[in-house]
Amino acid sequence: MRRRRILLGLELVVVVGLALLVSSVLARRLRVAPPVLLLGCGVLLGFAPALRDVHLPPEIVLLLFLPALLFWESLTTSLREIRSNLRVIVLLSTLLVIGTAGAVAAVAHALGLPWGPAWVLGAAVAPTDATAVGVLARALPRRTVTVLRAESLVNDGTALVIYGLAVGITVGEEQLTTPHVSWLFVLAYGGGALVGLATGWLLLQVRRWVHDPLQDNLVSLLAPFTAFLVAERIHASGVLAVVVTGLWLSQAGPREVRAETRQQGTAFWTLSTFVLNGALFVLIGVEVQSAVRGLSSVGVARGLVAVGVVAATVIGVRFAWHFTTPYVIRLVDRRPRQRLRRVGARARVVSGIAGFRGAVSLAAALAVPQTLRSGAPFPDRDTIVFVTAGVIVVTLVVQGLLLPVVVRWARLPRDTGAEDELHLAERVATEEALDALPRVAAGLGTDPDVVDRLSREYRKRLRVLRASRGESEDATALRYDQQYTALRLAVLAHKRAAVVRLRDERHIDDSVLRQVQYRLDLEEVRLSRPEVPE
Fold this sequence. Notes:
Distance between the termini: 46 Å
Number of helices: 22
Oligomer: single chain
Order of helices and strands: HHHHHHHHHHHHHHHHHHHHHH
């Protein structure tokens, strides 16, 4: 039995990895969002007899997948944009979640669910999914992406408070009173934010006396799980604690973290979150099959009707929000600065269609207890799981496929803000480096020839930067820079081939090859990287 479980685990790892690889390749060629194909792969894998006993434990999602994915999302989210859109983000992540949960609860009750399970279902499907938004909405303008990502990072906290209340009241362990509910929200948000700040500060102190890149990145790896654990211990929002920790480190990290540590950490988090994301979507697809097989309290046809009605409610409430609250805000706040931040109806349609549901919703549904305090079965638990899984499929597949079409229809203006700021950063950094060069060289006692050589390189780079943005008419500098880059890349290929040949002829060891190759790879990546990162 033990050997069979080990083999099943290995088979699952290989199958999920292959599904992730195939889906990623096909997504590029078919120009389809990867989560759509990954979800489809998971559904197909659910037909395999060997995988029918595979389930997605909610504890794995909430304690392993969620902290890591939220941490990376918060590390790579713009705090400046969050501050600029704070009011919108707070309203989306609180009032919209409460309104969505309430609307779904009312609809589910009308379909036959008791009020307790109806609110559990509403809380489960109310929050948008940060990982899905991060993958599916990546090509949108920066402000839109930031609002969507920040909303999905924070709204889990609101939804999980409502979920905990609904489950507790249904089971018979909670009382619905205004002071109690208010305290839960204060504890969730206030406690989560304080834990996040404390964790971020503490880890920064640790990183100041850790000098090895591997140890430093181990501290970074511990950050989200430490924040989540401490917050959950005091019944605060682990989600908010992880997000605040990530945002804190994103601001303090550039001053404290060394270059080698940062390169190693970025590579690690990029790969690990890519794998975790993909595996999560595949496992959601596998769990959809299990949800269908486990539906017993109602027929499949009635369950599908409930999925359609609840999905329509979730989407409808989001669209109603985006086409009502902006006008209320405009009536209340008429400051010129607020007028400049207004977005048109087409942009709001894009935001409305980008409200994807994902793993957190399914984990919440699967975490519903089997029995009540009295020992009786939890009413309509199978319906909650089935409808939640169905809503996730509808939002990911239907809205994921519609989003590119809607974006083209919306004809949103091209966002050049990142390009402009990148050019500004490089130009100012180069200018200030040139200004500081004589003083720094004098302090180091550098030979004049060396100073002259570095000065020429920086001035050439400055001419290229100015020519690339039309700030000067020096087209020759641009052409020379392009030719120089192409030549360097071609010569690097010859250098790499020479080093490999030396290894094959046994003149140098593999360890020496790896050292030289590492330096050549860094130079190649630097020369061939895109000007504006994703």
